[in-house]
Amino acid sequence: MSADDPAMPVLTATVLQSPEPVALARFYGALTGWTVHEDGPTWLRVRPADGGPGLSVQYDDAYVPPVWPPESGRQGMQLHLDFQVEDLPAATARALELGATEHAFQPQDDVRVLLDPDGHPFCLFLPGA
């Protein structure tokens, strides 16, 4: 942990719930080029080679996909992932080929809002966006 303060937490991963954790981890592994560590059918880690923070995917049979933009009375988004890209059209096409869907609502020209195979929103954006 932190050499200056051993009580200071260090973020290692954001955890996504999924009814299909193996498939979702493999989607994010393919999207990012990170390594998927299959610790079992209910818990997987997706990590960059440099050891920086990554993603984990945990089985949840009661998972309900969020809606975005928010709608009263429906499960809203609690977080989303942002990925910077150099070529937005190419990165969007690649994500779609891997199983993402493009959200109908796109609030900015230099950002693409997509949904992963389980419906978690994520964004691809250009530098400076």
UniProtKB/TrEMBL annotation:
Residues 14-125 form the Glyoxalase-like domain. It comes from Curtobacterium citreum. This is VOC family protein. It holds the Pfam family Glyoxalase_6. InterPro entries: Glyas_Bleomycin-R_OHBP_Dase, Glyoxalase_6.
